[in-house]
Amino acid sequence: MPKNVPVVEKILSANDQLARENRLAIDAAGVFSINVMASPGAGKTSLIEQTVRALTGKLRVGMINGDIATSLDADRAAAAGAAAVQINTGGDCHLDAVMLHDALPRLDLRSLDLLIVENVGNLVCPASFALGTHKNVLVASIPEGDDKPYKYPGMYRGVEAVVINKIDLLPYVTFRMDYFRQGIEVLNPGVAQFALSCSTGEGLGGWLDWLTAQVRKR
Length: 218
Ligand SMILES: Nc1nc2c(ncn2[C@@H]2O[C@H](COP(=O)(O)OP(=O)(O)OP(=O)(O)O)[C@@H](O)[C@H]2O)c(=O)[nH]1
Ligand SMILES: [Mg+2]
Fold this sequence. Notes:
seven-stranded parallel beta sheet; alpha/beta; 19% strand; binds guanosine-5'-triphosphate
């Protein structure tokens, strides 16, 4: 066995331990939380902006954004009406439970119904690090190509919902929706799927209904 495998296992189990603590803190505040993952530019922040705007007056939403640098995305979520906190990973390609643990006290969790964590744009690393959130959501987008479930199976396997964003670009990009959905179905049978456009608003209703139902189930 390669020497570094036990080290990696130790890091992941320490992460899982802290993820459990995060979950306890989130649960104690009565909040429902999601971890939003995607490749760079798929539309994570756009989806969060649209979600926050649509839910204003219905649910109180907080957002924690993970990015390598800048607070651009947390600023966008705040402008949309969310209580927002930025984490700069300083180069790390994913959020981990330690980073979320440090960020949680910066939000008044008890004043929230829904916490949305935006992970660093990356289709590989975020899938390996539990944060303690309740559900994982993957944002895929049309311009990325219809082969992504086949090439990044780990990410597609570990999520409870897939948002297929930028459907307004379907007339301009070669994208076989059936092929894409077949790939998802093999890896993650029955997973919730929402094809939508954050730009036009088409299809957003199904996503908002699913998310609101998850919050109400808590
Ligand atoms: N045509 C189209 N463009 C979109 C849509 N959603 C987002 N965009 C654009 O896609 C680009 C990236 O959107 P973001 O929401 O910043 O993507 P992100 O996943 O948060 O990006 P990172 O945080 O940098 O990984 C922006 O120029 C958005 O305006 C959509 O539904 N249709
Ligand atoms: Mg973003």
